[in-house]
Amino acid sequence: GAVVSQHPSRVICKSGTSVKIECRSLDFQATTMFWYRQFPKQSLMLMATSNEGSKATYEQGVEKDKFLINHASLTLSTLTVTSAHPEDSSFYICSANGRGRGHTEAFFGQGTRLTVV
Amino acid sequence: DAKTTQPPSMDCAEGRAANLPCNHSTISGNEYVYWYRQIHSQGPQYIIHGLKNNETNEMASLIITEDRKSSTLILPHATLRDTAVYYCIVRVGSTDKLIFGTGTRLQVFP
Questions:
Q1: pLDDT digits over B97-108, tens only?
Q2: Which SS3 state, helix, strand or coil, does residue A86 take?
Q3: Chain A contact for B95, CB < 8 A?
Q4: pLDDT tens-digit series, residues B23-39
Q5: Which candidate, B78, B97, B77, B72, places its Cα nearest to that of B6?
Q6: Is pLDDT of B95 > 80?
Q7: CA B66 from centroid of its chain's CA atoms
Q8: Which helix (H) or strand (E) holds B36?
Q9: Burial class (CB in 10 A: 0-12, 13-18, 19+), B102
Q10: Which residues of B fall within a CB distance of 8 Å from A95?
Q11: Are the Cβ atoms of B97 and A4 closer than 8 angstroms?
């Protein structure tokens, strides 16, 4: 089936720095990708919809200047956490809709664990 | 998207069937029922989906009531590796975003 790869899987950064997370669809093209955030023992929260060639659509309460999303090609979306603070520490997950087993379904990356110190 | 309600946790003995319920009483006629699961610290994994008919694949079976207000995911022979959080989601079409509820934490024990 389709594969979505995230990089890096883990990152530790200092407060005030920016961190970029990549999400790639390896064997299919994705005009739309989604970014989620998950805090410990909580469910996934949708942050934004990444649209190839246009601006991302952010969910209510998500700061677009804080979480920059770029979807420059049909196989790559990036999430940049700018001026990171300890409260941004979380598990970030991307997904893309691809063709699998005869139907379209959401394929998820393995996630990126961000720790801001 | 319609809201779903799931029990927060369930236990199941290894080798037995695990039946995970989901209520979606406000589901619309064009909304599908999807099930995903998330094993600790990994991305969610697709399990199965359906509209109104019961569905079965190599992983599980999905039973949807006739009024479509609830469904049950069945893992026929649970293994320890099935321990995960299971999410029931309803949405319109296959390209829409997924809105995750709180899910059911299934613990399979030996």
A1: 888 999 999 999
A2: helix
A3: yes
A4: 999 998 888 999 999 99
A5: B72
A6: no
A7: 17
A8: strand B31-38
A9: middle
A10: 43-44, 98
A11: no
